[in-house]
Amino acid sequence: MARLPVTDSLRMALSSLWANRLRTFLTLLGIIIGVLTIIAVVSVIQGLDNYVYTKMSFYGANDFSVVKFGFGARSFRELLEQLKRKDLTLADMELVKAKCASCALVGASVSTSRTVRHRDRSLRDVDIRGVTSVDHFIGSVLELESGRQIQKDDEDHARPVAVIGQDLVDELFPTVDPLGRRFKIGPDNFQVIGVGVRKGKLLGMSQDAFVRIPISAFMKHYGSRRSVSINVHAADQEEMAQAQEEVRTLLRSRRHLSFRDEDDFSFQTSESFIQIYRSATAGIYFAMIAIASIALLVGGIVVMNIMLVSVTERTKEIGLRMAVGARRRDILFQFLIESSVLSAAGGVLGILLGLLLAEGVSAATALPARLDPVSIVLAVVLSAGLGLFFGIYPANKAAKLDPIDALRSEQ
């Protein structure tokens, strides 16, 4: 007898599954829950990764900052060492500007948090940042909706002028044009000269609650005994590493550090933020995927148990098929197809429900959702492969049945 065609095996498998719809549905639940969990987790993870890599790139490809404190102190001792570091000053910034040949632009910034007011309206915990006149060209470029940027003349004369974010427009100037109007930062008056383009939220936190003022005005009103961030733009990406080395050499020389001493300052780039993010989330992601994989494993075990029940219930049918010429591999093939189809169907339903769950999480929270088509295909293949793996034992058991004993079965 010729081997049973694949289409016939598939048709018989679907017919068997449809004949036992309730059992098929209950079997699918395990796979659905497992795939749903994995798809929802992976979707949120991929969305968050994409969000971080695009939105949290505070620096351009050719930009970096030199700061007093580094990110992610690995020990309490390292934290204490950072606390002992000297402040970075405007004099350090002027040295870098004068001596760094690979640095196209050099600026500085310093920040604090204050309450801002206009008449009877106020907004708390606003990021107040003192900047030099070139800082809006370095790193995350500040685009304006109206008005102008802080200029060199504003910086030289410590003018009380400010560029504000959209949150201040919404809260302090909801019905009037803010340009030219005065508002208070604490007890001090400042005049609005520019309004930034709305940036929206980053992981649930607004990026529009800011005020940018000349760094000289910042030092005048809030004190000069603060460490500044030295911000550098290199001419191109190839010169960025050279620029960092030049800045390192200049600052180490100015601070009289020997070749044995470690840097008492840190560099920050977009990549450094991303590395911190990866380090902070790697363990969490692994745990989430591991838990979801356990759910999928349980679903596979359920498939194997149900297929064993199916073999027991269809023993007489198997014996009859063998008696009319079906070979052992035909029986094996049919049950493998049945378990694979069962798992793949559960995988497809799990993917759809997982995507809906991920979109629901995205809508209810600040976590974005995103899933590559490749991941969807892999999920279907994984679920079908899982059914194939867990269907091997039941299928093999069915194929090894003795035709005479199977025909005598009362099942």
List keywords for this structure.
alpha+beta; 13 helices; 2 domains; 411 residues; two-stranded antiparallel ribbon
Topology of this protein?
Blueprint: H1 6-19, H2 21-55, E1 63-67, H3 76-83, H4 90-99, E2 103-118, E3 121-131, E4 144-147, H5 152-156, E5 161-164, H6 166-172, E6 182-185, E7 188-196, E8 201-202, E9 205-206, E10 210-214, H7 215-222, E11 229-234, H8 240-254, E12 266-268, H9 270-313, H10 315-323, H11 328-364, H12 373-399, H13 403-408
Parallel strand pairs: 3-10, 5-7
Antiparallel strand pairs: 1-11, 1-12, 2-3, 2-6, 2-11, 4-7, 5-10, 6-7, 8-9
Characterise this structure.
The model has no long low-confidence stretch (mean pLDDT 81). This protein is α+β, with helices and mostly antiparallel strands. The protein starts with 5 loop residues before the first helix and ends with a helix. The chain has 2 domains: 6-55 and 275-408, no CATH class; 63-268, no CATH class. The radius of gyration is 33 Å and the shape is elongated. α9 (270-313) runs parallel beside α12 (373-399). The strands form 2 sheets. Strands 2-3-10-5-7-6 form a 6-stranded mixed beta barrel. A two-stranded antiparallel ribbon has the order 8-9. The longest helix is centred in the C-terminal third of the chain and has 44 residues, at 270-313. A hairpin with a 2-residue loop joins β8 and β9. It has helices at residues 6-19, 21-55, 76-83, 90-99, 152-156, 166-172, 215-222, 240-254, 270-313, 315-323, 328-364, 373-399, 403-408; strands spanning 63-67, 103-118, 121-131, 144-147, 161-164, 182-185, 188-196, 201-202, 205-206, 210-214, 229-234, 266-268.
